[in-house]
Amino acid sequence: MKENIDIVDIKKEIQKDRRAFIKNVLSGTIAGSLLMVIPAGAALDQRLPEQLPGMRGDDSPFTEKKFAFIVDVTACIGCGSCCVADKNEYNVPDGNYRTWVERYIIDDHDEVFVDSPNGGLDGYTKARTDIPHAVRDTFFVPKLCNMCEKPSCVQVCPVGATYKTEDGFILIDKSRCVGCGYCIQACPYSVRFLNPVSRTAEKCTWCYHRVRKGLLPACVNVCPVHARKFGDLNDKNSEVYKILREPHVISVLKPGMGNQPALHYLGLRREVV
Amino acid sequence: MEKKYKSAYYSHVVKIALILIIAGGLGVWARGLFLPDTMGQYGHYRGSDLEDQRNVELRNHTNESCYECHRPIRLIHKAGVHKTVSCEVCHGPYADHIKDDKYVAKMPVKRDMEIKALCLRCHNKIIRARPEESIKVVAMPQHLEEKKVDVGHNCNQCHMVHDPLLWVKAAYEMMGMEMKGDKK
């Protein structure tokens, strides 16, 4: 008897406001399906750790920071993790390198041997057998864009495709580049190449897109021995500020070119070019 | 100039002036047509490219992103000597595995002798340019002989790849021995 009453009640409810009933059912279904589409928790960008403080939520075109990159030659083991991460990040075509690792060998007679098989992408697995004398010194030198204070590549671009931002990044506008290759010749550090797929000039950007999200450049993030360091020189607590301020053997590549790179090397030997 | 040589007619001057003005106007119009809107906003480049550069796809993440799902590995990897090694260098970039928080493809996992090749990429003593402070290097197969194991052994038979000293330490502890050079 009671059941009967219940059923009648529900029927009455539906009769009373058919429109509201359908609305409730529909909104419930939509909400349910939305929950399956939208992941639980915060957005992915927010879940990532903030490796560079003060970059999150900064939407201004230029940051107030002055970034510097330091490569510690005395720590690098030549594993090529940075090269792997870089290739993965940008799908760099085979045979081109945005960053690479060179192996230097100096023998007893002060002769210098340099090689970089596949840019260090496959790591270094074999010792060189063609060194005539005993090896005096051997070390690895990772290379990447120097982000010059006075970039020659920007100066020669005829179409305004490559430019320097106010916070020091030198970037290439893919949609403007005509692939003339002037910048490739102008760069004293040979960091630029012509992408065979897009037919535009390409080079290391210090992972501008990652930095603006508060992440370290891909190569810095993966370096297992912390040979690559990246940070803000305006921040007095940053590691790069401390290294550049305290007494260390710091040098840049080809200082005589006058490009004033923001990429510094820690413990670089004079044989390195 | 003497007055008698001066022409009373100016139509040719007007013509030239008109042609110059029209040509100039056409030039300005064509420039506006071919140059992108934001060209010259901040300098001699397309201002909106800054936004495009920021929106480049993030393909590598950080180890923290991997740990979000792979909990047991997180505890092992974070506590061990390999904590600074990136997951993505051995397993591939995050973006190949997860897109928009959805699983898209299986990550490659190294097996058998691929593991040995991967270990020796960093730990091979034959490459002399490896600073002692950075990494512990071994010579093969001398390392296996020294440890009195079969020279056909793979690295991961003694060393857990995500924390190479986990089992070694446990073994030493079980035997009640002190590990050589264990400072940590």
Round the mean pLDDT of chain A to the nearest integer and report it. Answer: 88
Tally the structural domains of chain A: 2
First-last Cα distance of chain A: 96 Å
How much is the radius of gyration of chain A in Å? 28 Å
Could you walk me through the main structural features you see in this protein, from its secondary elements to its overall organization?
The complex is a heterodimer of chains A (273) and B (184). With 273 residues, chain A is of the alpha+beta class. Chain A folds into two domains: 2-37; 51-273, 2-Layer Sandwich (Alpha-Beta Plaits). Chain A is 27% helix and 18% strand. Chain A has helices at residues 2-16, 18-37, 44-47, 81-90, 152-156, 182-186, 208-211, 218-222, 239-245; strands at 67-72, 100-107, 112-115, 135-143, 162-164, 170-172, 193-194, 201-202, 228-232, 250-251, 263-266. Chain A has a four-stranded mixed beta sheet with strand order 9-1-11-10, with helices on one face. A three-stranded antiparallel beta sheet of chain A has the order 3-2-4, with no helix packed on it. The longest helix of chain A is centred in the first third of the chain and has 20 residues, at 18-37. The radius of gyration of chain A is 28 Å and the shape is elongated. Chain A starts with a helix and ends in a 7-residue tail after the last strand. Residues 31-40 of chain A have low confidence and may be disordered. Chain B has 184 residues and is an all-alpha fold. Among the domains of chain B are: 58-109, Helix Hairpins (Orthogonal Bundle); 110-179, no CATH class. Chain B contains eight helices and two strands. Chain B has helices at 11-34, 49-54, 63-67, 71-79, 87-91, 113-123, 142-146, 166-174; strands spanning 98-99, 102-103. Chain B has a two-stranded antiparallel sheet. Chain B starts with 10 loop residues before the first helix and ends in a 10-residue tail after the last helix. Chains A and B meet through helix 4, strand 2, strand 4, strand 5 and helix 7 of A and helix 2 and helix 6 of B.
